[in-house]
């Protein structure tokens, strides 16, 4: 459906997208997850033909986005980070205008606009000026313009940013509903957003793809941890002395606990060793009751942080090495931005 090959985008010396490759299959919801500045919007803008890449190519259903923009763009509906709304138009006027831009045949326009307004739940607002709508409704209009023409792929850049919790839930429901008939790619810097909606996650950091897997698989990775979290009644040095001879322990990290007279700790063991029973008896025999003992739950958040932090370190090292710095052309960004106005 979409094939992204070795995409690079440089802004001056800055690599916003760093050799990104991936493909997108039909009928799934994909999530671009990454901190602010990771390169999500830039990637989406390139995929939709909004800006040109420095290197690499994007094929939409076999059509190169730069060589055959009309054919490629017919397959895509895009809701950019800043929705391209005209505030002085009514909802219906605006959507009719977009339908015309998208070259939807005249006969079908009216019906399609009605249908799309119903799909995104804005029919009752159709005669309102866009500037008078709440942010949630504006976002629905933005979604509406993306859906017009019923493209196979819908790309949504941070679709719930700035919305209140109720609006977020409504937009999520809408996205799920749309996924019944469309392939969806959305971006977010919020992990829970991605895990709530997406089948597939692509984690992007500093313009690089650092992980790419099903949401289910990434969640499963979060089990089977080899870190135990304990609270033991006793002084830290006594606990330390007792644990010293236990061979399976690789590392101990001391933690805070609210329990009076108790010590908190995290024990990391070798892979797949379960020393819970051994610890239980050892502590009990030495009259230091274990008040709490549990495997540490690794959340998707932890994985995300780990992946993005590891990468930051690599990035820093690269930055310190002057040989690796890339010389770059002084191409102006404006000159690179293509089809800026005609894109909807
Ligand atoms: P994200 O959407 O993941 O927050 P962006 O794609 O917007 O990230 O930005 C990626 C990087 O590229 C950032 O460091 C950002 O500052 C830089 N960048 C984005 N657009 C421009 C631009 N037009 N000119 C210069 N730098 C830019
Ligand atoms: Mg962005």
Explain the overall architecture:
The protein has helices at residues 40-47, 69-74, 91-101, 106-119, 135-147, 165-178, 191-197, 215-221, 236-243, 276-285, 300-320, 333-336, and strands spanning 2-11, 14-24, 29-33, 55-60, 63-64, 76-79, 153-157, 183-188, 200-205, 208-214, 227-233, 249-255, 262-269, 290-295. By secondary structure, the chain is of the alpha/beta class. The chain has 3 domains: 2-218, 3-Layer(aba) Sandwich (Rossmann fold); 225-296, Alpha-Beta Plaits; 301-341. The chain has a 6-stranded mixed sheet, with helices on both faces. The chain has a 4-stranded antiparallel sheet with strand order 2-1-4-5. A 4-stranded antiparallel sheet has the order 12-13-11-14, with helices on one face. A hairpin with a 2-residue loop joins strand 1 and strand 2 (14-24). The longest helix has 21 residues, at 300-320. The chain is elongated and about 85 Å long. The chain binds adenosine-5'-diphosphate (ADP) and magnesium ion (MG). Adenosine-5'-diphosphate binds next to strand 2 and helix 1. Adenosine-5'-diphosphate binds at residues 11, 14, 16, 34, 36-42, 333.
